Amino acid sequence: MTTRRTRPAPRPPEGTPPRAELARQARTVLADAVRIAHWAAGAPGPGTTAPLAAHALERAATALELSPAQVRAGWDRARLAGLIELHGDTARPGWRLRAWDRDDSAVLRGWVALFDAWSLVHAAPAGIEAGAVAEAVEAVPQVLSLLQLSAGPVTVPALLDLLGQRVAELHEERCEVPLGPGRPATAATAAGTTANRPDPAAGTGGTDADLNALLLDWALEGLAAVGALTLGHGHATLTPLGNWAVWVKLEQICVAAQSPAGNIEQSAADMLLGCARLTPGPARDEYRAWLAARTVGSAVAELLAVARGQDALLRGLAFEALRVVGAPAEPEVRAVLAEPSLRPYALLWLAEYEGNDPDDAQDVLSREEATWLWVDTAAAVADHGETGLLVRHLDTAVQGTVPALLDEVRAVGHPRTVQVLVALAAAHPDPALAKAVRRAAFQVHTGGA
Q1: How many alpha carbons lie under 13 Å from residue 338 in its C-beta half-sphere?
Q2: More confident residue, 272 or 398
Q3: Which neighbouring-strand residues pair with 49?
Q4: Contact criterion met (CB below 8 Å) for 137 and 106
Q5: Alpha carbon distance 224, 220 (integer Å)
Q6: DSSP string covering 327-340
Q7: Chain-centre distance for alpha carbon 47
C-alpha cells in the first residue's frame, strides 16, 4: 500500500545543480577523507584506533603521500562524515564508504553530516569562553540564511552586523544583562590574535565587537573548510553545496511550521500516539515537523527511549520516525543492535537505510528475530488494534503453520507471549485453533513443554 504526498515535494532554488553534480562536488571536498578511510580499511594489524595512533599516522602519511596534518584532518572528516565508524577504541570502515562510488544520496548525507559539524572541523580560537563560542554557533544559521537569500557575495561587515544582532537577541531571550565597559577582554583579543581589530581598551563596547569579529572569522573559516562557502577579500559566498544545504535546513523549518496535527510541542511518546491512526504520508509529515523543532541528538535519544518502553506500538512507530531522521540516526540505531528488544527493528532500519527494498528487508532477520518481531507486533495489535487484525496477523508469520509458530513463539521468550496468545485465542473464530493457542499460552505461563 502506498500513500501519495498531499503536497508536491519542494524544489530547490533555481540554478541549484542536479544531485549528481552536488554529489561530485561533495566527493571532491571529501577526497582525502575517503582515501584515508580506504587506507584504514586495508591497514594491517593495529593502528586504526581512534584517535589515530602516532605510528598509524606516520604510516598513512607515507602511504598516501600526505602530510601528518592532512592525514589527521582527513581522519577527523572521515569520522564526522560517517566514512569511519567508532566501535569502542577501534575505528572500522562505515557502510557509507562502501556505497561512496555508486550512491549519490549516501555521499550527500555524508557531506551534510560534515557540514553540520563545521564547528568541530575548525577549532575555535584559544581563550574564548565556551558560552561565547556556543552563542556564535547558534547564531550561524541566521548568517547562512542571509548568504542563501542574497544569492551572491555578502560583505563581512553585513555578516558581522547580523551576527551581533543575533547574539544580542540570545542574551535578551536568556534575560542576561549586558556587561558595561568594565567587561574584561578575552585572552585572544587581549593578545591581539586577530589582525586589524579595534583595541578593546580604546572605547566602550569595543570588546563585544572585537569578540564577535573574531568569532565570525572563525565561523566563516570553518564553513569554508567543509566546502560550504568561499571567502574573498572582505566578502563570503555560499558554494552550490552550501546553498543547497541551507535550503534543505530552511525547508525543515517550514515543515515544522506546517505541522497539521499540532504535535510539535509534545513528548516523543505523545507525538507517536497522536500519529498512530494517521496514514503513512501524514504521519511522516508529523515526524518531520516534530524533528525539525529539535536538535537531532536529543530527538533520536528521546525516540529510542520510547522504543525501550513497554508499548510495542510506540516501539514500531519510534523506528518509523527514525526512518525520517535518516543518516544522523545511524550510529545510535547501530548501537542498539545489542539490545534484544530493539535488535529486529534496528536490523530492518539499517537494511532499508543501506538501500535494500523494504519488501526484502525481512531477509536480514534470523528465524528467532522474525518470531520475536511477530510477537511484538501482535502485542501492539492486541493493545491498540482490532481483533480481526490480530487474526490476520497470523498470516504474516514466517513459520507457515500454526503448530510450528506456537512452538517457536514459546521458545523465543518474548515477555508479552502469554498475553498475545490469550488475545489471539479469544479472537480466533476456529474453536480447535483457539484451543491449541490457549494451551500454548498456558504452557508458557506455567513453564511447561
Answers
A1: 4
A2: 272
A3: 90
A4: no
A5: 6
A6: GGGHHHHHHGGGST
A7: 28
